[in-house]
Amino acid sequence: MIRTKIVDALQSTDYDKEICIKGWVRTHRSSKAVDFIAVNDGSTIKNIQVVVDEGVVDAETLKQVTTGSCVCIEGKLVKSPAQGQASEIHCENLIIYGLCGADYPMQKKGQSFEYMRQYAHLRLRTNTFGAVMRIRHNMAMAIHTYFHEHGYFYFHTPLITASDCEGAGNMFQVTTKNLYDLKKDEDGKIIYNDDFFGQQTSLTVSGQLEGELGATALGAIYTFGPTFRAENSNTPRHLAEFWMIEPEIAFMDQEELMDLEEDFIKYCVKWALDNCKDDLEFLNKMIDKGLIERLEGILKDDFVRLPYTEGIKILQEAKANGKKFEFPCDWGDDLASEHERYLVEEHFKKPVIMTDYPTAIKSFYMKQNQETAEGGSVGYKGCVAPGSTMQGTDVLFPQIGEIMGGSVREEDYDKLMAEINKRQMDTTHLWWYLDTRRFGTCPHAGFGLGFERLILFVTGMQNIRDVIPFPRTPNNAEF
Fold first, then answer.
1. Which of 261, 282, 277, 210 is nearest to 430 (CA)?
2. What span, in angstroms and rounded, lies between the C-alpha atoms of 402 and 344?
3. How far is 227 from 450, CA to CA, in rounded Å?
4. Closest CA to 352 of 368, 366, 335
5. 16 in helix, strand or coil?
6. CA-to-CA distance for 12 and 114, rounded, in angstroms?
7. Cβ-count burial of 322 within 10 angstroms (0-12 exposed, 13-18 middle, 19+ buried)?
């Protein structure tokens, strides 16, 4: 008999039809010579109830059907008399594919997420992680659908690179060299001419620079793939391996970029509300009781567009009125999550797109504003010198802080080189990037969105390690 997915069985009204479902046992209880087995196959948050009358299945076989066991059930789909479920299956045949002993780690209820991270290979079978992974899939589909419908091309950038997009230097090195017998020069530096690529290479921290090349040829591209940061950050917001969405668009200015950021993220949130109803309702009930209301709230209002200078003024006034911040918030400081969340959750009570950050705290490729003390951007507690702020557009969300970071890119070769020289950057591995400014340069812009941070917001989960199947963090590369 052909298998029917449980999500389809639950929606069917073709009662008294012979049906076959396969999945894993969530619960098994006996009552007055009748056994009730809840089965789930991962296609939906909802289980289907299987009713086994006495004598239909051998008693010894039935005893082996424990939580976590994998079974095949054949029987009739009937209308259920019980509340909360439309249909159930009256079992006519039961086959056990896989037994599950009493030492099954996911057997008990109420286990902590920290405990379940030890069993990332099994936690996926729980209701919570099943819901999170289905939502993760839907968000990936939303991303591809949005960009495809808006004329963007999916552009694949390399995972192995010789350049450091962010200039931070915290990268995982890729090598085939024998680490116990490294060749070094007179200064003690490693010689890479006998390595696989003939030079030092690492896992990428971003596909942005290569994405810009795509935009200058195809007009509008997006990347969606894994990136890597070798930062020793043991926080609920950081991973060593995570996924990034990075569109790059030719001929786009700052206002258009902010329009894109807001439209894109609202599209993703609406997709979740439209396509993940059952999973969101479960998470709203079990994980975060304000989840659905918060998601719906994102769609209601326009995002606030707030210059950094005005944001600092608001934060300093809050501080003067008694608001306690752990980190400083003077003009020129990079805002901490607590500052971002204050602006979003307490002051404006809606998402904020913060613009025009100080150039010194942002990346070299961002286009600078040409302010003047007379008519341009005026910093809190003093004027801003010309060129000291840049056309950044960071999106700040409730409970998350910064969820998306973007900017207009500097298209002028001389200005870009001036910033590179000012930062004393090595351009050895950036010659190809600089060529785009030498040969037919064009205005362009883009943003980066950490996929897991989007999933954090949409699911209401509190730790980024719980929205990716197998998290990579300091001292953890299991599974």
1. 210
2. 10
3. 9
4. 335
5. coil
6. 38
7. exposed
* pLDDT one digit per residue (tens) for the chain, 479 residues: 899 999 999 999 999 999 999 999 999 999 888 999 999 999 999 999 999 999 999 999 999 999 999 999 999 999 998 777 889 999 999 999 999 998 999 987 788 999 999 999 999 999 999 999 999 999 999 999 999 999 999 999 999 998 876 655 589 999 999 999 899 999 999 999 999 999 999 999 999 999 999 999 999 999 999 999 998 888 888 899 999 999 999 999 999 999 999 999 999 999 999 999 999 999 999 999 999 999 999 999 999 999 999 999 999 999 999 999 999 999 999 999 999 999 999 999 999 999 999 999 999 999 999 864 344 444 444 445 555 899 999 999 998 999 999 999 999 999 999 999 999 998 888 999 999 999 999 999 999 999 999 999 999 999 999 999 999 999 999 99
Block residue for tokens 């602006």: 343
Q: In 297-417, at which residue ranges do the beta strands (DSSP E only) sit?
A: 304-307, 352-355, 393-397, 401-409
What six digits make up the tokens of 243? 């996924």
**Helices 291-300, 254-275: crossing angle, 10 deg rounding:** 140
In a 13 Å sphere around the CA of 301, the CA atoms on its Cβ side amount to 12
Which two structure tokens, joined as six digits, stand for 264? 């894109």
Residue 84's CB is within 10 A of a number of other CB atoms, namely: 7
